């Protein structure tokens, strides 16, 4: 294992405390878009589960899309604002409030020193994201600020938030902060979390090892998410166990986020952000990148159905999403620099 003092990079930026944790919530962690290039050492990517909602939160507050923010799971934290700043909350609807008044989601909101951000009853989805202007500035570990709780590194001391934690950010001029408020995501871009999700997949490298009946069942029936699911992987249960044509052993090989492995019990495991880097179970399919957010926002007991697409279709979906995010980022930046040229009403 690499020595911690080799892989940890202290931030050389001047920072100020921007949020204080009053209550941590169920599982709130500092995350970014993940650490990459270390799988050969057995280090998975970590990072946010719903990268679409996370990037939108950063865009709305005027950050670069990869800046670290908070991933909030089901029961949100209570936070005290330590410096005037701008925040945005996206993803799951967990009834956010500011000084006990409803706090609009998918919108950049100006918050003042001393105010309190709280979350209430979950309405839809599983994971919410809170971005703050300037990002959450914690030391990088292997090029990322993401928390890997199981391996105990990244984020704040490799753990979920605890009461009295202080979250640092970049100091910003008041006028610069004020120009970042009031940006609302167009309704057509707000993702909807329904009770059942149709998730597009590519055929896995070992699809041919499964019986024709199992492959047919995989695409024609729904799978429920098991309570034994976490950031590492979602266990799925279906009407039919997935079976191999024979008991041929396969050599352990690399796995990707979204890979759907099938162990000996015939119940698939869908690998997520904190996945391992290799595995010996056959992979029947892999969720396309553009649809991973749908899985990340599913609750145990909810249903997922799989739809096969081609690699060209998966690439096109990703290109379209990227183009949309870039256009939105440009619009927000123009609004922040010269708001009078782009009336707020037109942006919405």
TrEMBL record:
Domain Carboxyltransferase residue range list: 40-324
SUPFAM superfamilies listed in its UniProt record: Cyclophilin-like (SSF50891)
Molecular functions per Gene Ontology: ATP binding; hydrolase activity
Keyword entries, A-Z: ATP-binding, Hydrolase, Nucleotide-binding
Family matches, as InterPro entries: CT_A_B (IPR003778), Cyclophilin-like_dom_sf (IPR029000), PxpC (IPR052708)
This protein's record includes keyword Nucleotide-binding: yes
Pfam families membership: CT_A_B
Keyword Transcription: no
Protein name, per record: Antagonist of KipI
Organism: Evansella caseinilytica
